[in-house]
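Our consortium's second objective concerns turning raw sequence data into structural hypotheses that experimental partners can test. To show how far this objective has progressed, the report includes one record in full. It was chosen at random from the queue rather than selected for favorable results. The single chain below, 331 residues long, was entered without modification.
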Amino acid sequence: MRLLVTGGAGFIGANFVRTTRRERPDVSLTVLDAFTYAGSRESLAGLDDTVCVVEGDLTDAELVALCVADADAVVHFAAETHVDNALADPGPFLRSNVIGTFAVLEAVRQHGVRLHHVSTDEVYGELALDDPRRFTADTPYNPSSPYSATKAAADMLVRAWVRSYGLAATISNCSNNYGPYQHVEKFIPRQITNVLTGRRPKLYGNGANVRDWLHVDDHNAAVWRILEDGRPGRTYLIGADGEHDNLTVLQMILREMGRDPDDFDHVTDRAGHDLRYAIDPGRLQDELTWKPVHSDFEEGLRATIGWYRDNESWWGPLKDGVEAKYAEREG
């Protein structure tokens, strides 16, 4: 298989590329990435001789079409993803997530190439903290941030191209990922690297917001199952029954790193901060016999902390800039 991975230098994409190279050496891999602040060549270090890396913007339709023409399938990870950044400036999110996805769709339509589009559970909005329900593929879309609205728009474009043009495409909506190579602006690596650099961790509001945590390797294993055996036109939700509120996650990190579990600062909550996300992965499990390997969240968190301890050379150059931006927002 000749596989094109958009956003293959970002967090989830780079882990996907690394795992694929290790476990499927016969797959020919091309990465298309704009190498914005969230995409790092260092995340692909050591793969130079086995992965073709193309630097370019998804909104460059001609370049995207050239890359797609040489592929048997495309896994579309590329997106702007950080909610705080979208609140400050939604423009890049519209360009990457909507116009970029349109360029990918037109290219795969032109060349008859299989597409898997990677999306988020945030398109469904929020659930109440005491609501027993979880998101399914039939949950109505109700995005509540500029980020989730652009991802919802991208999902709808994929669905329209499947129906209108018969595109061989699938969609996955995943819960919150964690693991190696995640940018330090995100919740878990930010708290870990705050401790490692002698800073006090920060918690939005009272920390009651619940996320359904999923190890990045489990996510990417699910993507491969969908790519190989998913039904075109279907949406699959990827989750690992990993619901924890933000306060609990932060205190887990502090305990694991030998700090007092109350050694953090509360900061003003994010505007429109969704209360709870929860994924029902039943379709994925029943149709494609997928199950998460990293079902013990504390164990996965411990391994993630270990990775950041051992890889300061990867995240260290990013840290001061990220904290300077947060200081402006948090007052």
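The partners drew two points from this record. The chain has a mean pLDDT of 96. The chain is about 45% helix and 15% strand. Both points have been shared with the crystallography group to help prioritize constructs.
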